[in-house]
Amino acid sequence: MPEKRIGEILVENSRLTQEQFATALEVQQQTPNIPIGQIICQLGYLSAEDMSLALDISKKRLNLGDILVKQNLIDQEKLENAINLSKKDNISLGSALVKQHIIKEEQLARAISSQYDLPYVSLDKYILPEELGKYFSASYAMKHRIVAIQKCPCSVTVAMAFPLSPHVLHELEELIHLTIKPVIARESDIFMALENIYGVQRKAPTASQVDPVQLDIMEDFSSEELRSKYVLDHNVDYIAKRLISVGVQINASDIHLEFTESGADVRFRIDGVLQSIDMGGDYRLIMTHGRPLISKIKILCDMDITEKRRPQNGSFRVKMTAGNFPKTVDFRVSTVPTKYGENMVIRILDRKGPMSLQTLGFSNTVSIELDRLLAKPTGIFLVTGPTGSGKSSTLYSILGRLNSPGVKTMTVEDPIEYTMDGISQSEVNTAIGNTFAEYLRAFLRQDPDNIMVGEIRDVETAMISIRASLTGHTVLSTLHTNDSTGVVPRLLDMGVDATLLSSTLHCVISQRLVRINCTHCREEYQPNAEILEEFGVALGSTSLFIHGKGCPNCNCTGFSGRLPIVEMWIPSREEALLINKHAENQLLRESAFINGNNLTMLQDGLERVLKGETTLEELVRVIPYEQVLEYRRKIDMGLGKRL
Known about the structure:
The chain is an alpha/beta fold. It folds into 5 domains: 1-61; 64-102, no CATH class; 123-198, Type II secretion system, protein E, N-terminal domain (GMP Synthetase, Chain A, domain 3), CATH 3.30.300; 214-350, Beta-Lactamase; 357-518 and 562-600, Rossmann fold, CATH 3.40.50.300. The protein is built from 28 helices and 19 strands. A 7-stranded antiparallel sheet has the order 4-8-9-10-5-6-7, with helices on one face. The longest helix has 16 residues, at 234-249.
Protein backbone atom coordinates (compact mmCIF):
# COMPACT_ATOMS: atom_id res chain seq x y z
CA MET A 1 0.00 0.00 0.00
CA PRO A 2 1.46 3.43 -0.95
CA GLU A 3 2.50 5.64 1.93
CA LYS A 4 -0.02 8.33 2.85
CA ARG A 5 0.79 11.99 2.18
CA ILE A 6 0.61 14.65 4.86
CA GLY A 7 -2.57 16.08 3.27
CA GLU A 8 -4.34 12.75 3.48
CA ILE A 9 -3.30 12.36 7.12
CA LEU A 10 -4.67 15.83 7.92
CA VAL A 11 -7.97 14.97 6.20
CA GLU A 12 -8.27 11.73 8.22
CA ASN A 13 -7.68 13.70 11.42
CA SER A 14 -10.26 16.34 10.45
CA ARG A 15 -7.63 19.11 10.34
CA LEU A 16 -8.25 19.61 6.62
CA THR A 17 -11.33 19.11 4.40
CA GLN A 18 -11.26 17.01 1.25
CA GLU A 19 -12.07 20.09 -0.82
CA GLN A 20 -9.17 22.05 0.72
CA PHE A 21 -6.76 19.18 0.01
CA ALA A 22 -7.98 18.99 -3.62
CA THR A 23 -7.41 22.73 -4.03
CA ALA A 24 -3.87 22.42 -2.61
CA LEU A 25 -3.11 19.59 -5.07
CA GLU A 26 -4.26 21.77 -7.99
CA VAL A 27 -1.93 24.57 -6.84
CA GLN A 28 0.94 22.11 -6.48
CA GLN A 29 0.56 21.03 -10.12
CA GLN A 30 1.44 24.59 -11.11
CA THR A 31 4.34 24.82 -8.60
CA PRO A 32 5.69 21.24 -8.26
CA ASN A 33 8.84 22.32 -6.40
CA ILE A 34 6.84 23.58 -3.38
CA PRO A 35 5.90 20.91 -0.81
CA ILE A 36 2.18 20.28 -0.32
CA GLY A 37 2.40 21.19 3.37
CA GLN A 38 3.83 24.61 2.53
CA ILE A 39 1.02 25.20 0.01
CA ILE A 40 -1.61 24.29 2.63
CA CYS A 41 -0.13 26.93 4.96
CA GLN A 42 0.07 29.54 2.19
CA LEU A 43 -3.63 28.97 1.40
CA GLY A 44 -4.41 29.66 5.06
CA TYR A 45 -5.92 26.23 5.75
CA LEU A 46 -3.50 25.55 8.63
CA SER A 47 -1.08 27.62 10.69
CA ALA A 48 2.63 27.13 10.22
CA GLU A 49 2.98 26.01 13.84
CA ASP A 50 0.23 23.38 13.48
CA MET A 51 1.69 22.16 10.20
CA SER A 52 5.15 21.88 11.74
CA LEU A 53 3.72 19.86 14.62
CA ALA A 54 1.79 17.60 12.22
CA LEU A 55 4.87 17.00 10.05
CA ASP A 56 6.97 16.07 13.07
CA ILE A 57 4.34 13.74 14.58
CA SER A 58 3.68 11.97 11.28
CA LYS A 59 7.40 12.02 10.34
CA LYS A 60 6.50 13.49 6.98
CA ARG A 61 8.92 16.41 6.95
CA LEU A 62 11.27 16.20 3.95
CA ASN A 63 14.90 15.56 4.84
CA LEU A 64 17.37 18.32 4.04
CA GLY A 65 19.28 16.00 1.71
CA ASP A 66 16.11 15.09 -0.21
CA ILE A 67 15.30 18.78 -0.68
CA LEU A 68 18.78 19.54 -2.04
CA VAL A 69 18.59 16.55 -4.40
CA LYS A 70 15.14 17.66 -5.55
CA GLN A 71 16.51 21.16 -6.22
CA ASN A 72 19.34 19.59 -8.31
CA LEU A 73 21.97 21.15 -6.07
CA ILE A 74 23.53 17.77 -5.26
CA ASP A 75 23.28 14.20 -6.49
CA GLN A 76 22.86 11.02 -4.47
CA GLU A 77 26.58 10.21 -4.49
CA LYS A 78 27.53 13.61 -3.07
CA LEU A 79 24.77 13.29 -0.49
CA GLU A 80 26.11 9.93 0.70
CA ASN A 81 29.68 11.28 0.90
CA ALA A 82 28.46 14.25 2.95
CA ILE A 83 26.49 11.95 5.29
CA ASN A 84 29.63 9.88 5.90
CA LEU A 85 31.66 13.04 6.58
CA SER A 86 29.01 14.38 8.98
CA LYS A 87 29.12 11.15 10.97
CA LYS A 88 32.93 11.06 10.96
CA ASP A 89 33.42 14.69 12.07
CA ASN A 90 30.24 14.78 14.21
CA ILE A 91 28.82 17.78 12.34
CA SER A 92 25.46 18.43 10.70
CA LEU A 93 24.76 17.35 7.14
CA GLY A 94 24.48 20.98 6.05
CA SER A 95 27.86 21.84 7.57
CA ALA A 96 29.40 18.83 5.82
CA LEU A 97 28.03 19.95 2.44
CA VAL A 98 29.31 23.50 2.91
CA LYS A 99 32.68 22.24 4.15
CA GLN A 100 33.04 20.12 1.01
CA HIS A 101 32.14 23.20 -1.11
CA ILE A 102 29.32 21.21 -2.70
CA ILE A 103 26.79 23.94 -1.89
CA LYS A 104 27.08 27.54 -0.77
CA GLU A 105 26.00 28.68 2.67
CA GLU A 106 23.13 30.69 1.22
CA GLN A 107 21.84 27.63 -0.67
CA LEU A 108 21.88 25.69 2.60
CA ALA A 109 19.96 28.43 4.42
CA ARG A 110 17.35 28.65 1.65
CA ALA A 111 16.92 24.85 1.68
CA ILE A 112 16.35 24.92 5.46
CA SER A 113 13.83 27.76 5.04
CA SER A 114 11.99 25.63 2.48
CA GLN A 115 12.15 22.57 4.74
CA TYR A 116 10.47 24.44 7.62
CA ASP A 117 8.42 26.91 5.55
CA LEU A 118 10.14 29.91 7.12
CA PRO A 119 11.26 33.11 5.35
CA TYR A 120 14.93 33.46 4.36
CA VAL A 121 16.54 36.85 5.09
CA SER A 122 19.91 38.42 4.37
CA LEU A 123 21.19 40.24 7.45
CA ASP A 124 23.20 42.67 5.30
CA LYS A 125 20.01 44.75 4.98
CA TYR A 126 19.48 45.09 8.74
CA ILE A 127 20.90 47.66 11.16
CA LEU A 128 21.33 45.85 14.46
CA PRO A 129 21.59 48.12 17.54
CA GLU A 130 23.02 46.80 20.81
CA GLU A 131 19.62 46.94 22.55
CA LEU A 132 18.54 43.89 20.53
CA GLY A 133 20.88 41.89 22.74
CA LYS A 134 18.59 42.22 25.76
CA TYR A 135 16.26 39.39 24.67
CA PHE A 136 18.82 36.55 24.91
CA SER A 137 22.11 36.14 26.70
CA ALA A 138 25.27 36.10 24.57
CA SER A 139 26.09 32.51 25.52
CA TYR A 140 22.56 31.27 24.72
CA ALA A 141 22.45 33.10 21.39
CA MET A 142 25.91 31.81 20.41
CA LYS A 143 25.08 28.23 21.41
CA HIS A 144 21.78 28.11 19.52
CA ARG A 145 22.92 30.35 16.60
CA ILE A 146 20.08 32.85 16.95
CA VAL A 147 19.96 36.64 16.97
CA ALA A 148 17.14 39.17 17.36
CA ILE A 149 17.09 41.40 14.28
CA GLN A 150 13.89 43.48 14.53
CA LYS A 151 11.55 44.64 17.31
CA CYS A 152 7.86 45.43 16.82
CA PRO A 153 5.40 46.45 19.57
CA CYS A 154 4.16 42.90 20.19
CA SER A 155 6.79 40.73 18.54
CA VAL A 156 10.48 40.28 17.80
CA THR A 157 11.93 38.78 14.63
CA VAL A 158 14.66 36.24 15.38
CA ALA A 159 17.09 34.97 12.75
CA MET A 160 18.16 31.35 13.16
CA ALA A 161 20.63 29.12 11.39
CA PHE A 162 18.37 26.17 12.21
CA PRO A 163 14.80 26.43 13.61
CA LEU A 164 14.28 25.96 17.31
CA SER A 165 11.62 23.42 18.29
CA PRO A 166 8.07 24.76 18.88
CA HIS A 167 8.15 24.12 22.64
CA VAL A 168 11.50 25.96 22.99
CA LEU A 169 10.07 28.90 21.07
CA HIS A 170 7.01 28.88 23.35
CA GLU A 171 9.23 28.94 26.47
CA LEU A 172 11.25 31.88 25.06
CA GLU A 173 8.03 33.79 24.29
CA GLU A 174 6.89 33.27 27.87
CA LEU A 175 10.25 34.53 29.07
CA ILE A 176 10.46 37.74 27.00
CA HIS A 177 6.67 38.36 26.88
CA LEU A 178 6.72 38.82 23.11
CA THR A 179 5.74 36.74 20.11
CA ILE A 180 8.77 35.38 18.26
CA LYS A 181 8.74 35.45 14.47
CA PRO A 182 11.43 33.00 13.32
CA VAL A 183 13.33 33.51 10.05
CA ILE A 184 16.31 31.66 8.54
CA ALA A 185 19.67 33.32 7.81
CA ARG A 186 23.21 32.24 6.96
CA GLU A 187 25.16 31.01 9.96
CA SER A 188 28.12 33.30 9.23
CA ASP A 189 25.75 36.31 9.10
CA ILE A 190 24.33 35.35 12.48
CA PHE A 191 27.76 35.06 14.10
CA MET A 192 28.82 38.39 12.65
CA ALA A 193 25.63 39.98 14.03
CA LEU A 194 26.35 38.47 17.46
CA GLU A 195 29.85 39.96 17.37
CA ASN A 196 28.40 43.40 16.62
CA ILE A 197 25.65 43.20 19.26
CA TYR A 198 27.39 41.42 22.14
CA GLY A 199 31.04 42.18 21.36
CA VAL A 200 31.88 38.48 21.51
CA GLN A 201 33.94 36.69 18.91
CA ARG A 202 33.33 33.22 17.67
CA LYS A 203 36.26 30.84 17.72
CA ALA A 204 37.24 29.72 14.22
CA PRO A 205 35.54 26.39 13.58
CA THR A 206 37.52 23.18 13.54
CA ALA A 207 36.17 22.60 10.04
CA SER A 208 38.96 24.81 8.75
CA GLN A 209 41.83 22.53 7.90
CA VAL A 210 44.21 25.30 6.80
CA ASP A 211 46.40 26.85 9.48
CA PRO A 212 48.56 29.87 8.69
CA VAL A 213 52.32 29.44 8.60
CA GLN A 214 54.43 31.87 10.60
CA LEU A 215 55.15 35.06 8.68
CA ASP A 216 58.21 37.22 9.11
CA ILE A 217 56.76 40.04 7.03
CA MET A 218 59.34 42.36 5.50
CA GLU A 219 59.55 45.83 7.00
CA ASP A 220 57.69 47.51 4.16
CA PHE A 221 54.63 45.32 4.76
CA SER A 222 53.58 47.06 7.94
CA SER A 223 55.94 49.98 8.37
CA GLU A 224 55.02 52.97 10.52
CA GLU A 225 55.38 55.21 7.45
CA LEU A 226 52.60 53.34 5.69
CA ARG A 227 50.44 53.35 8.79
CA SER A 228 50.81 57.10 9.15
CA LYS A 229 50.05 57.62 5.46
CA TYR A 230 47.01 55.35 5.36
CA VAL A 231 45.11 54.49 8.53
CA LEU A 232 44.17 50.80 8.19
CA ASP A 233 42.10 48.59 10.48
CA HIS A 234 44.22 46.00 12.33
CA ASN A 235 41.89 43.37 10.83
CA VAL A 236 43.23 44.24 7.37
CA ASP A 237 46.80 43.39 8.42
CA TYR A 238 45.57 40.10 9.82
CA ILE A 239 43.54 39.19 6.71
CA ALA A 240 46.41 40.05 4.35
CA LYS A 241 48.82 37.82 6.29
CA ARG A 242 46.20 35.10 6.54
CA LEU A 243 45.52 35.03 2.79
CA ILE A 244 49.22 34.99 1.95
CA SER A 245 50.05 32.21 4.39
CA VAL A 246 47.09 30.06 3.32
CA GLY A 247 47.88 30.56 -0.38
CA VAL A 248 51.51 29.50 0.05
CA GLN A 249 50.70 26.60 2.37
CA ILE A 250 48.14 24.97 0.06
CA ASN A 251 50.41 25.46 -2.99
CA ALA A 252 47.98 27.79 -4.75
CA SER A 253 49.25 29.55 -7.87
CA ASP A 254 46.91 32.55 -7.49
CA ILE A 255 44.72 34.28 -4.94
CA HIS A 256 41.58 35.83 -6.47
CA LEU A 257 39.83 38.65 -4.59
CA GLU A 258 36.51 39.32 -6.32
CA PHE A 259 33.67 41.70 -5.51
CA THR A 260 29.98 40.87 -5.68
CA GLU A 261 26.87 42.73 -4.60
CA SER A 262 27.17 41.31 -1.08
CA GLY A 263 30.89 42.04 -0.59
CA ALA A 264 34.31 40.57 -1.29
CA ASP A 265 34.93 36.90 -1.98
CA VAL A 266 38.19 34.97 -2.16
CA ARG A 267 39.13 31.88 -4.18
CA PHE A 268 42.42 30.09 -4.69
CA ARG A 269 43.63 28.55 -7.94
CA ILE A 270 44.87 25.08 -6.97
CA ASP A 271 46.06 22.62 -9.61
CA GLY A 272 44.80 24.99 -12.28
CA VAL A 273 41.21 25.19 -10.97
CA LEU A 274 39.66 27.92 -8.81
CA GLN A 275 38.52 26.57 -5.44
CA SER A 276 36.93 27.99 -2.31
CA ILE A 277 38.84 27.17 0.86
CA ASP A 278 37.27 26.99 4.33
CA MET A 279 38.58 30.16 6.00
CA GLY A 280 36.56 29.61 9.16
CA GLY A 281 35.52 32.78 10.94
CA ASP A 282 37.84 34.85 8.72
CA TYR A 283 35.53 34.53 5.72
CA ARG A 284 33.15 37.17 7.06
CA LEU A 285 36.07 39.54 7.75
CA ILE A 286 37.15 39.18 4.14
CA MET A 287 33.62 39.97 2.95
CA THR A 288 33.38 43.16 4.99
CA HIS A 289 37.00 44.37 4.66
CA GLY A 290 37.49 43.81 0.94
CA ARG A 291 38.18 47.39 -0.11
CA PRO A 292 40.72 48.26 2.61
CA LEU A 293 42.38 44.89 1.89
CA ILE A 294 42.76 45.91 -1.78
CA SER A 295 44.25 49.21 -0.62
CA LYS A 296 46.67 47.38 1.67
CA ILE A 297 48.01 45.19 -1.15
CA LYS A 298 48.22 48.23 -3.43
CA ILE A 299 50.41 49.99 -0.88
CA LEU A 300 52.76 47.02 -0.79
CA CYS A 301 53.04 47.07 -4.58
CA ASP A 302 53.61 50.84 -4.74
CA MET A 303 50.43 51.23 -6.82
CA ASP A 304 48.30 54.36 -6.92
CA ILE A 305 45.82 53.79 -4.08
CA THR A 306 43.53 56.57 -5.36
CA GLU A 307 43.22 55.12 -8.88
CA LYS A 308 40.24 52.79 -9.01
CA ARG A 309 39.11 53.25 -12.61
CA ARG A 310 42.07 51.74 -14.47
CA PRO A 311 43.86 48.38 -14.32
CA GLN A 312 47.18 48.37 -12.44
CA ASN A 313 50.08 45.94 -12.02
CA GLY A 314 52.69 45.60 -9.29
CA SER A 315 54.65 43.21 -7.12
CA PHE A 316 55.90 42.71 -3.56
CA ARG A 317 58.01 40.26 -1.60
CA VAL A 318 57.46 38.55 1.74
CA LYS A 319 59.82 36.66 4.03
CA MET A 320 58.09 33.78 5.72
CA THR A 321 58.91 30.81 7.91
CA ALA A 322 57.31 27.40 7.41
CA GLY A 323 58.38 25.31 10.38
CA ASN A 324 61.98 26.36 11.00
CA PHE A 325 62.81 27.01 7.34
CA PRO A 326 62.84 30.67 6.24
CA LYS A 327 62.19 31.54 2.62
CA THR A 328 61.33 34.49 0.42
CA VAL A 329 58.22 34.46 -1.73
CA ASP A 330 57.49 36.91 -4.55
CA PHE A 331 53.98 38.02 -5.51
CA ARG A 332 52.76 39.62 -8.74
CA VAL A 333 49.56 41.63 -8.44
CA SER A 334 47.00 42.73 -11.02
CA THR A 335 43.84 44.81 -10.48
CA VAL A 336 40.84 45.29 -12.79
CA PRO A 337 37.86 47.58 -12.05
CA THR A 338 34.44 45.86 -12.13
CA LYS A 339 30.85 46.87 -11.41
CA TYR A 340 31.05 46.22 -7.65
CA GLY A 341 34.72 47.04 -7.00
CA GLU A 342 38.30 46.31 -8.00
CA ASN A 343 39.06 42.65 -8.54
CA MET A 344 42.60 41.65 -7.62
CA VAL A 345 44.64 38.59 -8.60
CA ILE A 346 47.79 37.83 -6.59
CA ARG A 347 50.13 35.43 -8.42
CA ILE A 348 52.33 33.44 -6.01
CA LEU A 349 55.91 32.92 -7.25
CA ASP A 350 57.19 30.51 -4.63
CA ARG A 351 60.87 30.02 -5.46
CA LYS A 352 61.18 26.30 -5.01
CA GLY A 353 63.85 26.06 -7.69
CA PRO A 354 63.93 24.09 -10.94
CA MET A 355 63.39 20.33 -10.93
CA SER A 356 64.45 17.51 -13.21
CA LEU A 357 62.13 16.35 -15.98
CA GLN A 358 61.45 13.12 -14.07
CA THR A 359 60.54 15.07 -10.94
CA LEU A 360 58.18 17.25 -12.97
CA GLY A 361 56.36 14.10 -14.05
CA PHE A 362 57.53 13.59 -17.63
CA SER A 363 57.21 10.02 -18.89
CA ASN A 364 60.37 7.94 -19.15
CA THR A 365 60.07 7.81 -22.96
CA VAL A 366 60.06 11.60 -23.32
CA SER A 367 62.75 12.12 -20.65
CA ILE A 368 65.16 9.64 -22.27
CA GLU A 369 64.65 11.07 -25.77
CA LEU A 370 65.09 14.64 -24.55
CA ASP A 371 68.25 13.71 -22.63
CA ARG A 372 69.62 12.22 -25.87
CA LEU A 373 68.94 15.45 -27.76
CA LEU A 374 70.41 17.66 -25.04
CA ALA A 375 73.63 15.62 -25.00
CA LYS A 376 74.50 17.29 -28.33
CA PRO A 377 72.38 20.44 -28.32
CA THR A 378 72.06 22.61 -31.40
CA GLY A 379 69.42 24.84 -32.97
CA ILE A 380 66.19 25.97 -31.33
CA PHE A 381 64.25 24.12 -28.62
CA LEU A 382 60.68 25.41 -28.16
CA VAL A 383 58.12 24.66 -25.44
CA THR A 384 54.53 25.51 -26.35
CA GLY A 385 51.16 25.63 -24.64
CA PRO A 386 48.68 28.10 -23.15
CA THR A 387 49.28 30.21 -20.06
CA GLY A 388 49.64 28.05 -16.95
CA SER A 389 50.61 24.85 -18.77
CA GLY A 390 54.03 24.54 -17.09
CA LYS A 391 56.19 25.85 -19.95
CA SER A 392 58.54 27.83 -17.69
CA SER A 393 59.12 24.88 -15.35
CA THR A 394 60.04 22.69 -18.34
CA LEU A 395 62.43 25.34 -19.69
CA TYR A 396 64.17 25.66 -16.34
CA SER A 397 64.54 21.88 -16.15
CA ILE A 398 66.18 21.85 -19.58
CA LEU A 399 68.43 24.73 -18.48
CA GLY A 400 69.46 22.72 -15.43
CA ARG A 401 70.37 19.82 -17.73
CA LEU A 402 72.50 22.10 -19.97
CA ASN A 403 74.12 24.04 -17.15
CA SER A 404 77.70 22.95 -16.40
CA PRO A 405 81.01 24.65 -15.45
CA GLY A 406 82.31 24.43 -19.02
CA VAL A 407 79.52 26.42 -20.71
CA LYS A 408 78.10 29.93 -20.49
CA THR A 409 74.33 30.29 -20.33
CA MET A 410 72.41 33.59 -20.45
CA THR A 411 68.69 34.20 -20.08
CA VAL A 412 66.28 37.08 -20.64
CA GLU A 413 62.99 36.65 -18.77
CA ASP A 414 59.83 38.54 -17.86
CA PRO A 415 60.08 38.12 -14.92
CA ILE A 416 62.86 35.94 -13.48
CA GLU A 417 60.96 33.15 -11.71
CA TYR A 418 63.86 30.98 -10.49
CA THR A 419 67.41 32.03 -9.71
CA MET A 420 69.96 29.48 -10.93
CA ASP A 421 73.62 29.37 -9.93
CA GLY A 422 76.09 29.52 -12.81
CA ILE A 423 73.63 31.23 -15.18
CA SER A 424 73.52 34.94 -16.07
CA GLN A 425 69.86 36.00 -15.84
CA SER A 426 68.38 39.31 -17.03
CA GLU A 427 64.89 40.75 -16.67
CA VAL A 428 62.93 42.67 -19.30
CA ASN A 429 62.30 46.34 -18.56
CA THR A 430 60.46 47.97 -21.45
CA ALA A 431 60.35 51.34 -19.66
CA ILE A 432 64.09 51.83 -20.34
CA GLY A 433 64.19 49.92 -23.63
CA ASN A 434 65.45 46.57 -22.31
CA THR A 435 63.26 44.33 -24.48
CA PHE A 436 63.77 40.68 -25.42
CA ALA A 437 65.26 41.70 -28.77
CA GLU A 438 67.60 44.29 -27.24
CA TYR A 439 68.97 41.80 -24.72
CA LEU A 440 69.46 39.17 -27.45
CA ARG A 441 71.60 41.57 -29.48
CA ALA A 442 73.74 42.21 -26.41
CA PHE A 443 73.98 38.49 -25.59
CA LEU A 444 75.53 37.70 -28.97
CA ARG A 445 78.47 39.94 -28.04
CA GLN A 446 78.95 38.02 -24.76
CA ASP A 447 79.92 34.72 -26.44
CA PRO A 448 77.35 32.47 -24.70
CA ASP A 449 76.87 28.77 -25.46
CA ASN A 450 73.18 28.65 -24.48
CA ILE A 451 70.53 31.37 -24.59
CA MET A 452 67.06 31.24 -23.08
CA VAL A 453 64.40 33.71 -24.22
CA GLY A 454 61.38 33.78 -21.92
CA GLU A 455 58.92 34.09 -24.82
CA ILE A 456 59.02 34.80 -28.56
CA ARG A 457 56.46 37.57 -28.95
CA ASP A 458 57.41 39.31 -32.20
CA VAL A 459 59.27 38.81 -35.46
CA GLU A 460 62.31 40.74 -34.28
CA THR A 461 62.86 38.43 -31.30
CA ALA A 462 62.17 35.39 -33.50
CA MET A 463 64.66 36.39 -36.22
CA ILE A 464 67.45 37.20 -33.76
CA SER A 465 66.87 33.86 -32.02
CA ILE A 466 67.11 32.00 -35.34
CA ARG A 467 70.27 33.86 -36.36
CA ALA A 468 71.78 33.05 -32.94
CA SER A 469 71.09 29.34 -33.48
CA LEU A 470 72.68 29.54 -36.96
CA THR A 471 75.91 30.84 -35.42
CA GLY A 472 76.30 27.86 -33.09
CA HIS A 473 74.23 28.88 -30.06
CA THR A 474 71.56 26.71 -28.48
CA VAL A 475 68.37 28.76 -28.07
CA LEU A 476 65.50 27.84 -25.72
CA SER A 477 62.17 29.66 -25.71
CA THR A 478 58.38 29.39 -25.38
CA LEU A 479 55.53 30.09 -27.75
CA HIS A 480 51.74 30.13 -27.39
CA THR A 481 50.33 27.47 -29.74
CA ASN A 482 47.78 24.65 -29.42
CA ASP A 483 50.18 21.87 -30.41
CA SER A 484 53.80 21.22 -31.34
CA THR A 485 53.52 21.56 -35.13
CA GLY A 486 51.52 24.76 -34.64
CA VAL A 487 54.80 26.66 -34.09
CA VAL A 488 55.45 26.58 -37.84
CA PRO A 489 52.41 28.56 -39.06
CA ARG A 490 52.73 30.81 -35.99
CA LEU A 491 56.35 31.78 -36.78
CA LEU A 492 55.70 32.00 -40.51
CA ASP A 493 52.78 34.36 -39.84
CA MET A 494 55.17 36.52 -37.81
CA GLY A 495 57.36 36.85 -40.89
CA VAL A 496 60.11 34.33 -40.17
CA ASP A 497 61.85 32.96 -43.26
CA ALA A 498 60.75 29.35 -43.89
CA THR A 499 64.21 28.22 -45.03
CA LEU A 500 65.87 29.52 -41.88
CA LEU A 501 63.16 27.97 -39.69
CA SER A 502 63.45 24.52 -41.29
CA SER A 503 67.22 24.47 -40.79
CA THR A 504 67.22 25.60 -37.14
CA LEU A 505 64.06 24.10 -35.54
CA HIS A 506 65.46 21.16 -33.59
CA CYS A 507 62.76 20.12 -31.10
CA VAL A 508 59.28 21.26 -30.03
CA ILE A 509 57.55 20.15 -26.84
CA SER A 510 53.86 20.91 -26.49
CA GLN A 511 52.28 20.24 -23.11
CA ARG A 512 49.31 20.56 -20.81
CA LEU A 513 48.95 19.96 -17.07
CA VAL A 514 46.37 17.42 -15.90
CA ARG A 515 45.33 16.91 -12.30
CA ILE A 516 46.44 13.75 -10.50
CA ASN A 517 43.93 11.47 -8.79
CA CYS A 518 44.11 11.95 -5.02
CA THR A 519 46.06 9.05 -3.49
CA HIS A 520 43.88 9.11 -0.36
CA CYS A 521 40.52 8.52 -2.06
CA ARG A 522 41.30 6.69 -5.31
CA GLU A 523 38.71 4.14 -6.34
CA GLU A 524 37.59 2.25 -9.41
CA TYR A 525 34.76 3.85 -11.39
CA GLN A 526 33.02 3.69 -14.75
CA PRO A 527 33.09 6.88 -16.89
CA ASN A 528 29.75 7.82 -18.43
CA ALA A 529 28.82 6.51 -21.86
CA GLU A 530 29.39 9.87 -23.61
CA ILE A 531 32.99 10.08 -22.41
CA LEU A 532 33.72 6.48 -23.41
CA GLU A 533 32.22 7.13 -26.84
CA GLU A 534 34.44 10.21 -27.31
CA PHE A 535 37.54 8.06 -26.96
CA GLY A 536 36.20 5.14 -28.97
CA VAL A 537 36.33 2.75 -26.03
CA ALA A 538 35.12 -0.65 -27.21
CA LEU A 539 32.02 -2.12 -25.61
CA GLY A 540 32.96 -4.63 -22.95
CA SER A 541 36.44 -3.16 -22.62
CA THR A 542 38.37 -4.61 -19.68
CA SER A 543 40.27 -1.35 -19.10
CA LEU A 544 40.30 -0.28 -15.45
CA PHE A 545 39.44 3.37 -14.79
CA ILE A 546 40.36 5.13 -11.55
CA HIS A 547 39.24 8.45 -10.08
CA GLY A 548 39.29 10.23 -6.72
CA LYS A 549 35.87 10.29 -5.08
CA GLY A 550 36.77 13.35 -2.96
CA CYS A 551 38.03 13.64 0.61
CA PRO A 552 39.26 16.35 3.02
CA ASN A 553 42.86 15.77 1.86
CA CYS A 554 42.03 16.99 -1.67
CA ASN A 555 39.45 19.61 -0.66
CA CYS A 556 36.82 17.14 -1.90
CA THR A 557 37.88 17.60 -5.55
CA GLY A 558 39.26 14.09 -6.08
CA PHE A 559 42.57 15.52 -7.32
CA SER A 560 45.85 16.50 -5.69
CA GLY A 561 48.78 17.83 -7.72
CA ARG A 562 49.38 17.98 -11.47
CA LEU A 563 51.62 16.32 -14.03
CA PRO A 564 52.45 17.20 -17.64
CA ILE A 565 51.19 15.34 -20.67
CA VAL A 566 53.35 16.14 -23.68
CA GLU A 567 53.98 15.56 -27.34
CA MET A 568 57.55 15.97 -28.56
CA TRP A 569 58.20 16.73 -32.22
CA ILE A 570 61.68 16.42 -33.73
CA PRO A 571 61.24 17.54 -37.35
CA SER A 572 62.43 14.91 -39.84
CA ARG A 573 63.95 15.69 -43.24
CA GLU A 574 60.57 15.18 -44.90
CA GLU A 575 58.92 17.55 -42.41
CA ALA A 576 61.70 20.13 -42.95
CA LEU A 577 60.79 20.07 -46.65
CA LEU A 578 57.15 20.62 -45.73
CA ILE A 579 58.17 23.64 -43.61
CA ASN A 580 60.08 25.02 -46.62
CA LYS A 581 56.88 24.70 -48.67
CA HIS A 582 54.83 26.61 -46.04
CA ALA A 583 52.78 23.47 -45.37
CA GLU A 584 49.61 23.80 -43.31
CA ASN A 585 49.57 22.48 -39.75
CA GLN A 586 47.31 19.56 -40.72
CA LEU A 587 49.88 18.23 -43.21
CA LEU A 588 52.65 18.46 -40.61
CA ARG A 589 50.54 16.56 -38.09
CA GLU A 590 49.69 13.92 -40.69
CA SER A 591 53.40 13.31 -41.22
CA ALA A 592 54.53 13.52 -37.59
CA PHE A 593 51.66 11.98 -35.62
CA ILE A 594 49.23 10.15 -37.91
CA ASN A 595 51.69 8.30 -40.14
CA GLY A 596 54.65 8.67 -37.79
CA ASN A 597 55.37 7.00 -34.47
CA ASN A 598 55.30 10.13 -32.32
CA LEU A 599 52.83 10.17 -29.42
CA THR A 600 50.38 13.05 -29.23
CA MET A 601 49.46 14.78 -25.97
CA LEU A 602 46.22 12.82 -25.98
CA GLN A 603 47.98 9.46 -26.34
CA ASP A 604 50.40 10.38 -23.55
CA GLY A 605 47.38 11.30 -21.44
CA LEU A 606 45.58 8.03 -22.21
CA GLU A 607 48.62 6.11 -20.97
CA ARG A 608 48.33 8.10 -17.72
CA VAL A 609 44.64 7.20 -17.52
CA LEU A 610 45.40 3.49 -17.88
CA LYS A 611 47.97 3.82 -15.06
CA GLY A 612 45.27 5.32 -12.82
CA GLU A 613 47.03 8.69 -12.57
CA THR A 614 44.23 10.81 -14.04
CA THR A 615 40.79 10.53 -15.69
CA LEU A 616 39.27 10.71 -19.16
CA GLU A 617 37.18 13.69 -18.02
CA GLU A 618 40.38 15.55 -17.12
CA LEU A 619 41.81 14.93 -20.60
CA VAL A 620 38.68 16.36 -22.20
CA ARG A 621 39.03 19.45 -19.98
CA VAL A 622 42.59 20.36 -20.98
CA ILE A 623 43.40 18.85 -24.40
CA PRO A 624 42.40 20.55 -27.69
CA TYR A 625 39.34 18.72 -29.00
CA GLU A 626 41.01 18.43 -32.43
CA GLN A 627 43.33 15.83 -30.92
CA VAL A 628 40.34 13.71 -29.85
CA LEU A 629 39.06 13.75 -33.43
CA GLU A 630 42.59 13.02 -34.67
CA TYR A 631 42.85 10.04 -32.31
CA ARG A 632 39.51 8.59 -33.47
CA ARG A 633 40.54 8.98 -37.10
CA LYS A 634 43.83 7.21 -36.42
CA ILE A 635 41.91 4.28 -34.87
CA ASP A 636 39.54 4.13 -37.85
CA MET A 637 42.56 3.97 -40.18
CA GLY A 638 43.91 1.01 -38.22
CA LEU A 639 46.96 2.98 -37.05
CA GLY A 640 46.10 2.91 -33.36
CA LYS A 641 44.47 0.64 -30.80
CA ARG A 642 41.38 1.19 -28.70
CA LEU A 643 41.46 1.37 -24.92
